[in-house]
Write a structure and sequence with these properties.
The first copy, chain A, is of the alpha/beta class. Helix content of chain A is about 40%, strand content about 15%.
């Protein structure tokens, strides 16, 4: 019979204590395979506890497999001979899991937004309203593509601002464009070859590499991605940003758009992924219609995000699938849950339907125009103007600053970093095997710059770049 | 010289109208390749508009590539000979993109939650607080694994409730376990072979199939997944739910847990994915420690979700990576943005840190106990009791109802559906090539049942199941 001493400190219940005692005896070998345990009643009497206590302890031990019961016979200790005996783990001093990030005084490399620019009060208000009026909806699982109200709001927006005519169910909402790419790869097949722009946004290439699909890199000429090189590349799918190529800042000409659509039409397996990541922020001239709006053959998959237009931390992106791909999506990938929380989907739907999104975009466009103009003005008024040239400043939230210098880009970058300035060069966005890489061109992102810091930031930059 | 008639309806600005006129002339062939346009000044004078209007229109046409300029010469029409000429798209009546879903009166198949059970008022309060106090944090991109506050809150919770000892950075937060699986596949390599349980949750198999990795199916015996069959399968990674297998409801015995850890230790490439999806709702006896808490060799990847414990629509899941895999994650996949919105990460962190999560879980555990007991009581008091047997009712939010009947499962399911009742059979969760499939066993989910509907639901079920 057991002899255990219970503690009445209430930290752990009596049955847990009994469970621990018996388990320790089994693990130490004191109780061995096949040993019969006293009956629950006998053990309770002996230990001075209630039968419920022994019952619970035995049940816990049984459910974890330490003991087993035979009908009308009682409880026995299980075979735990194959116990897991780990070798001693070597305790070595290990590096931190993530190396610490360098902090900068001025960051021309970040494409984040400033907290002051997020419409917190409207957002909080709409979220509160949603909590009041749509409890059931908030808790009912969203269809795979997203909630209908947001799909409809996006349809209206896309029709009005990007000339895109789509049914709500063609719109698939997901937690970031990176996630949507992974869905697209599953939809279009892992065997397809994807063409990316060179220079380009390095994350896209990393994703394709990480999921193990084939990709090739195609360079741009003045009109956009080269069709001749696209044909040579053997690609099936062209992943591009015709409205504003990153980082080159180029806009694809209308004739090239038509050529590209013709290219896609030549073979059934060909598609175009149109990544329209910052089209809301074309700061000069008329907005360009989306490539998708010219497409008559269900060849263009349009992708956009609220990263630039609301916040990168809200993680809401969407894609417009051509009709036949939307059908395929629901048939083949409809088992996936939508990755965006209902709470935020409903809030964003209201934000759009009540006209707040349009207002916010207009406000932000004016804001970024001011920031850009101030930055350009400061550069113009500084000695930098003598040894640099601004280019591609009309579309999107970055421009190019071409320097007249002999210093290599890597050295300039290092000097800037030493002065607390983060800059990225166009050359960093080129593949290692590129033949013609333009040197001395800074990609100037300004969305995360504080207005009041701009004069000092330009001064600091000037000190670094001018010997 | 152009002759265009402008409308003063303010719907579209003068420059947009001019842009449209010229574009239409180019597309129709009225203006041809190489044609010289009048100077901006001459056109303005002729049309009776300002020079700014013609300037804007020309700039828009140029940025889209319809016209080009030669320095000191003027503007010319581009070559648009390769224009995209789509064939007429056949207009056929098409099926709806998603077939309509059947609605049920009583759903024993859903594992959703009821809106009344979500802590809306606390959540709204915490979100409002976060909006007030953490604006900067809400807008600063979260590290790839998630925000530190939530990682820390999860660490404390896991230590206390699941016996898991992990550093915050070992915890990776993502928008749903489905998404985390896709990260794991990228981390562990697409060449590995994954073993899944048979019977099992079909979505997991669908994900592996969709991303194109190899998987095999291993059946369970009374102690859990069979090690002998696991060895025969050639699998490198075992994806299992030791605390509560779905749908069988089985709990892996302690000796099998040790055997499984030994299996993983035999080869370097072997890992265990421990999917602990509803361990919070072990309704009887002591909570089982996680398999991960026994692991001394960094072989167990622990995965859990707030789908059951908060809401399936909130899309927050997490995994605990062994230390060396966490390092690999940040090195190789650290470029991915975290897929959960900062707003909800901070709110959930507060919800956990302020003790609301523990309270909520306790409340829900009691609530589900009541629902389960009521359901079991209603079955016991109905004629169903004579021709059925309840099993595996202790852990998690479902149990098995084994029927004594001759009717095939498919027929029973159909009859139930006709009566407005949604039921799923254990047999539906077996692979098509399984040898021994138990018939007449209903998987009874009860988390989405309304208390007041239970008596009527059981009565309706009784009518269907008893001839």
């Amino acid at each position: 019979m057991f002899t255990y001493t219970f503690e009445n400190d209430k930290k752990s219940s009596l049955y847990m204590q009994l469970y621990d005692f018996i388990k320790a005896d089994i693990l130490s070998g004191k109780l061995r395979r096949g040993d019969k345990l006293p009956s629950k009643r006998a053990a309770a009497k002996h230990l001075g506890v209630s039968v419920i206590t022994t019952e619970n302890a035995y049940a816990a031990l049984q459910s974890e497999g330490y003991i087993y019961s035979l009908p009308k016979k009682g409880y026995y200790v299980s075979e735990i001979s194959k116990l897991y005996h780990p070798a001693a783990v070597e305790q070595v001093r290990r590096e931190p899991i993530i190396p610490e990030k360098k902090k900068y005084l001025y960051d021309f490399s970040s494409n984040g937004i400033l907290a002051d620019n997020f419409p917190f009060s409207v957002w909080a208000h709409l979220m509160r309203e949603t909590f009041h009026h749509a409890k059931e909806d908030l808790i009912s699982p969203s269809p795979s593509g997203g909630i209908a109200a947001l799909q409809e709001a996006l349809c209206t927006h896309l029709k009005q601002f990007r000339g895109i005519d789509a049914a709500p169910l063609q719109i698939i909402i997901g937690a970031g464009t990176e996630y949507l790419y992974s869905l697209l790869i599953q939809l279009l097949g892992g065997q397809a070859c994807y063409a990316l722009q060179n220079p380009g946004y390095p994350k896209i290439a990393k994703i394709y590499k990480s999921v193990g699909v084939k990709n090739v890199f195609v360079s741009e000429d003045d009109n956009g991605i080269s069709i001749r090189r696209l044909n040579q590349s053997g690609a099936d799918i062209a992943h591009i940003s015709p409205s504003h190529s990153f980082p080159s800042g180029k806009v694809m000409s209308i004739s090239r758009r038509h050529e590209l659509l013709n290219w896609a039409n030549e073979e059934q397996k060909r598609y175009i992924i149109e990544d329209d990541y910052d089209s809301e922020f074309r700061l000069a001239g008329k907005p360009l219609p989306a490539l998708q709006s010219l497409d008559k053959h269900e060849k263009v998959i349009y992708v956009n995000t609220f990263t630039k237009s609301l916040s990168p931390t809200i993680r809401i992106s969407y894609m417009v699938l051509p009709r036949h791909l939307a059908e395929l999506f629901y048939r083949r990938l409809g088992f996936y849950a939508c990755t965006v929380s209902n709470f935020e989907q409903y809030t964003l739907a209201e934000f759009m339907l009540q006209g707040y999104f349009e207002k916010h975009i207009n406000r932000m466009r004016n804001y970024y125009k001011k920031i850009r103009n101030l930055l350009l003005q400061e550069i113009k008024n500084s000695p930098l103007a003598q040894c640099s040239e601004v280019a591609e400043e009309k579309a999107g939230l970055h421009f190019l600053l071409k320097l007249k210098t002999d210093m290599p880009d890597a050295l300039l970058k290092k000097k800037a970093a030493a002065a607390g300035i983060h800059i990225s060069f166009l050359s960093e966005y080129y593949r290692a095997d590129s033949t013609e890489v333009p040197a001395h061109v800074i990609v100037m992102n300004y969305s995360a710059l504080k207005k009041e810091n701009i004069p000092a930031a330009v001064k600091a930059l000037e000190k670094v770049l001018i010997k």
